[in-house]
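Hi,

I'm pasting everything inline rather than attaching a file, because the server keeps stripping attachments. The sequence lines come first, and each chain or strand is labelled.
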Amino acid sequence: MKGYGLFYFIAEAFRGLRANSIVNLLAVGTISMAMLIVGFFLLVFINIQSTVTSLGDRLEMSVYLKDGLTEQEKDFLRSRLKIEPGVRKMNFVPKAEALLLLKKELKGQEALIQGLGENPLPDSYEIGIDPRYADVEKLEALAKKISGYRGVEDVSYGRQGAELLTGLYKLITYGGTALAVLLGVAVVFIISNSVRLALYSRGQEIELMQWIGATKGFIQGPFLLEGMMLAMLGTALAVGILAAVFYTLPQELVAILSRPKGLDFLPGHIVAYMILGSGVLGLAGGMVSVSRFLE
Amino acid sequence: MIQLYRVTKYYEGVPALRDVSFTVDKGEFVFVTGPSGAGKTTLLKILFCAEHADEGQIILQGMNTFRLSSSSIPYLRRNMGFVFQDYKLLPHKTVFENIALALKVVGTSYGEIERRAYQVLKKVGLEDKRHLTPPKLSGGEQQRVAVARALVNEPQVLLADEPTGNLDPQSGQEVFRLFRDINMKGTTVLIATHDWETVRKMQRRIITMENGRVTDDGKQLPRQLPIELLKPGPGSVPFEGEP
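And the predicted assembly:
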């Protein structure tokens, strides 16, 4: 298109925003409320996720060895464990050291192990699990695989902890996704209504443009951009409100909420995704109305 | 330029056009007349691809409209100007902006818009009123702006639906004179009107319609016929400078 394009669309979109300022202000306000909810849940999600990840870092698995293994057999087992993708780090704990640790843990109740005579504890490898394996099914599969290795007596890991972590992950992921989808649909609906009002207010102009040879793209471009701008403005406002509230929270409350790890605000890239994502939703909302109107 | 072959159009089962066939050559000036409900507006809407015919074939500027995709219609319309009875000017835009819109939709550059809008407004004698909005103009002036907008892209065909329907006789004559001048420069003009007096005086081809049918396509007078030979009817207003 000679002499026209994005610049014309932007100018027309701003003209449309100004022309229906009351309706558009209401739309921006409503979108910012919806995006405030999305932003709040994202904030919670990100902070829980980082806590869960830090807990995942501490996930361990104990691989108990059979008695009487030679050094070569232990070395061979070590090398096999080392190449397992779920193994982040590993530490050999000889049976004597294990007993010492047990005694330390049972301090004050040493009587419980006094009658044992010979050390009943086996040698073991204490494995640090890769956080990406902090999932019950993956841990189960890894434990089963290692149990089958020659020289391994038993494998144990914090199954309950892993189940809790997995459950928490799923709850946050699925719940957050469902909420985001729901609010995303709401944003599309709000935008489509707002753009529809703009279309009706300029119906005469649009009809005329069709008569004088304007293409569909030329007519709908400014309205789609208007929808995008409304959604992005609403989201930017929501992020602003969220940031203002977050950074003015009373320090005592932050101290309570931030255990064991400090609270973080939404990272820059997440804010960018939110604004861009809402722009896409705004575009979709605009498309819904414009296509119907032009038909 | 325009060919219709047995075109029929129904609205909710009721025929608005029945078996309409005619041809308009390049550079011709044609009136379509008939009483209200004769099908004149439907015919123009079909020619402008605002409506689809249910039966028959239409060839516009060498293109069969049945084979046109909806995305091609804007490009066809760019070669056709359309003048409406109610002018269809945007009341909040100035005369200049109304003209400029027609240039903008076809992607004309800003500098070119200035130049061409001024030229076409000069042609219709409204260059001094380019900064006014349509409500501040008389009906005749508004229709001249509408004609200017239809002409600014130099269309090959100009269609007009009752262009003088809302005008006093004097303003109507001025608008018709504009159409005549446009036609003299080679644009094909097709006007739907029931202003029989003007039609008679303009001495051009007349297609008469009634109940959706073409009832007469034979009242074509030679274009060279001296205007002096025609006597104005009672109550008619002569063109300025004409006997």
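The beta strands of chain B are 2-11, 14-24, 29-33, 55-60, 63-64, 80-83, 157-161, 188-192, 205-210, 213-216.

If the labels don't parse on your end, tell me and I'll reformat.
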